[in-house]
Amino acid sequence: MLSKSDNLNIIKRVYRSLKCSVIAQHFVAGERLNIEILAEDLRVSITPVRETLLRLVAEGLIINVPKMGLFMRILSEADIRDLYEMNHILTAWSMSQLITDEIPGLVLGMPELVALNKKLTITQIPSDEVIANSSGAIFEYCARRSGNLEIVERIKNMNDRLNHTRVCESRMEKAPVIQLIEITKQGVSGNYKELKKLFEDQYTRSVMLLPHVMRQRIIPPIPVIEETLVNTLVREPS
Fold first, then answer.
1. Least C-beta-crowded within 10 Å: which of 58, 135, 161, 194?
2. What is the CATH T-level fold of the domain 77-218, as seen in this structure?
3. Under a CB-based contact definition with an 8 Å cutoff, are residues 211 and 168 in contact?
4. Which SS3 state, helix, strand or coil, does residue 88 take?
5. Which of 203, 196, 201 shows the shortest CA–CA distance to 96?
6. Is the per-residue pLDDT at 194 higher than 90?
7. Is 149 exposed, middle or buried (0-12, 13-18, 19+ CB in 10 A)?
8. CA-CA distance, 119 to 121, in Å (whole number)?
9. Contact (Cβ atoms closer than 8 angstroms) between residue 123 and residue 130
């Protein structure tokens, strides 16, 4: 029989694994999540899997349809725009608090951004996943600096729900890392007014790109289109 500590470790492992898979969109939007199959894949009983999925329902990452089961949530363009707006409102409030708390002649800055700035600077071409995760980390750091733990939790949840959209957005940008490096630099320097403006610019750009990001998520990749075209040409009579 497993000890209480062993059971807790299993629950934590299952939660981390399934949450990462959901956030990374390893399941198709709208896909039904089969508890038995997931438990078999993870080599655990159905209990920790069921508990994890219900927890993810509470976090807004998946949905529970009565008498039908648990499904991957499908975020509409309006849903994502609302999340972007709420994230921007809470981040702007956090920055306003930091600006209000500034002490003349004293530069506190955000030393927690030093490591992130270095990582983004020395990496030749950061992956889209790194860009998305870094963006979320910056928002969380700013929220923590405000001292409002409720905002921190809300920002963390929105980071989870927006992660895949940010990955898709990064794929469309020519050099998304440049803006993030500038944001971390201003944060480290404690230039909160400039940082607030950069967040405003980032929000405006994300909303502007959103319709294009949504199309990117549903249009087949270019290689598939090219392959289909080649096959069609081959089959056409000369």
1. 58
2. Four Helix Bundle (Hemerythrin (Met), subunit A) (1.20.120)
3. no
4. helix
5. 196
6. yes
7. exposed
8. 6
9. yes
